[in-house]
Design a protein that fits this description.
It contains 7 helices and no strands. It is mostly helical. The protein has one domain (33-141). The longest helix is centred in the last third of the chain and has 26 residues, at 97-122. The chain is rod-shaped. Keywords: Signal. Residues 1-26 form the signal peptide.
Length: 153
């Protein structure tokens, strides 16, 4: 009885492997679509990264300004804030000198953060495309392994 069960299990394993191998053989990777697929994949990553940069400067400015004025302006920030905003740090719009100083510092910090974010997003294609297309080229030349999935950056 035990040998019969072992034989049946063995036959089932062989049958499952045969089915999986047969189905994998029918799925050919389209090497001519490799570069366009890489471009679409990498562009989607770049677009996603750029979209994350849209609020970087306003969010950073808001938190920087709040922290700076509450920590350095002796509680005057609520009255002196006026309409301080990124790049609007004049006496007429911003109020007390302490709030203006915070506005200027935070405007600079927000601009730098936004620049770094968009610069990094702009380099996605530079790093993503070669990696992706090299993987496709290697696979299509050798056909030795499954085509690699594009690397996310």
């Amino acid at each position: 009885m035990a040998s019969t069960i072992a034989t049946v299990k063995g036959a089932l394993v062989v049958a499952a492997c045969f089915v999986l191998l047969h189905s994998a053989m029918g799925q050919q990777y389209n090497c001519s679509a490799c570069t366009p697929s890489c471009y679409q994949h990498c562009q989607a990553i770049a677009d996603s990264d750029f979209s994350k940069c849209s609020n970087v400067s306003t969010d950073l400015f808001a938190s920087c300004f709040k922290g700076c004025t509450s920590g350095h302006c002796n509680g005057n920030s609520a009255n002196a804030h006026g309409s301080c905003d990124i790049g609007s740090c004049s006496a007429s719009s911003c109020g007390c000198p302490c709030a203006r100083d915070c506005c200027k510092v935070c405007t600079d910090a927000a601009g730098q953060a936004s620049y770094r974010c968009t610069s990094a997003a702009g380099r996605v294609m530079q790093y993503c495309m070669p990696s992706c297309t090299n993987g496709c080229s290697t696979y299509c030349a050798n056909r030795s392994a499954p085509a690699p999935a594009p690397t996310a950056y």
